[in-house]
Design goal:
Layout lengths: L6 E6 L4 H12 L3 E7 L7 E3 L6 E5 L2 H8 L3 E4 L3 H13 L3 E4 L6 H14 L2 E4 L5 H13 L5 E8 L9 H14 L19 E3 L2 E7 L5 E9 L2 E9 L6 H11 L4 E4 L1 H5 L7
Parallel strand pairs: 1-2, 1-5, 2-4, 5-6, 6-7, 7-13, 8-10
Antiparallel strand pairs: 3-4, 8-11, 9-10, 11-12
Helix pairs in contact: 1-7, 3-4, 5-6
Length: about 270
């Protein structure tokens, strides 16, 4: 069946901060059409189009949204349980999914892979859609070959429920993969305040901060003889994620199967030395 040049997109969690930002980005892009949203908190049957103000269908569940709007893609920014529900509802209806939900386990991703394969739909799951954050992970993986010590500090808004962030874990994994072995690590003989040295991921000390005023910051600090190397990425607002989300939307309708990580959408995994 021929696909419309414009991709019809529904937004799960549309009443939340990320959901409303995604809806506005989709509505403002010439290659996508915002067709409606789903949110368990919905108390009406419509949500306003961010550009025209026209009413768009609003439903409590993704299944109801799919029935009402027949989207090509559903974008989900919720949590692990919400993402799994989105994968199941969308795949069975032949709808592709772009998910930025974190906290998914390896078993959860295998379920997503199975659903995508079974129903011949595309699913993209990424811990971060900010292009700079993805590049930070890629560059940190390269730098890891040249340093023995590393700390990773991530900061997010006070409402974030998981720590460390999914992006921090992705960066840490890229660092260990790039190094090929565990990092060296200072182990304090005494900690006046327990946990001061942070979490331990293969020798990387991982620290999480939560406070109002932050959206997302990831900082990697490498240490070597007589020198340090610091890499920082800041997401100043939620709009920083939207170019990556739109790229993923346009990619997911062309594929069957699961893709994990925006680095694969950008082709960065092919550039690894």
């Amino acid at each position: 069946m021929a696909r419309s040049p414009e991709i019809k997109v529904g937004v799960s969690g549309v009443l939340g901060r990320m959901g409303s930002t995604v809806l506005a980005a989709v509505a403002g892009d010439p290659g996508t059409i915002a067709v409606g949203g789903a949110d368990p908190a919905a108390t009406s049957a419509t949500v306003a189009h961010p550009v025209t103000g026209a009413p768009l269908p609003l439903r409590k569940s993704i299944s109801e949204l799919i029935e009402a709007t027949r989207p090509d893609v559903v974008v989900d920014f919720s949590n692990a349980a919400g993402a799994l529900a989105a994968f199941a509802a969308c795949a069975s209806a032949g709808v592709s999914v772009v998910s930025g939900s974190t906290g998914l386990s390896a078993q959860d991703l295998e379920k997503a892979r199975s659903l995508a394969s079974q129903h011949s739909v595309g699913i993209i799951s990424a811990s971060n859609f900010a292009l700079g954050a993805v590049l930070l992970g890629y560059l940190a993986g390269i730098a890891s070959r040249y340093f023995d010590y590393a700390d990773l500090i991530e900061s997010h808004h006070e409402a974030k429920i998981d720590a460390p962030s999914g992006t921090a874990l992705s960066i840490a994994r890229a660092m260990v993969e790039g190094r090929g072995r565990r990092f060296n690590q200072n182990v304090a003989e005494s900690q006046t305040i327990p946990g001061t040295r942070g979490g331990d991921f293969e020798g990387i000390n991982v620290h999480s901060a939560r406070m109002p005023g932050r959206v997302a910051r990831h900082e990697v600090v490498f240490g070597g003889t007589g020198q340090t190397l610091t890499m920082i990425h800041d997401s100043i607002n939620r709009e920083s994620f939207m170019p990556g989300v739109l790229l993923a939307i346009k990619r997911v309708v062309t594929q069957d199967g699961l893709v994990v990580g925006l680095d694969r959408v950008l082709g960065l995994e092919k550039l690894k030395p």
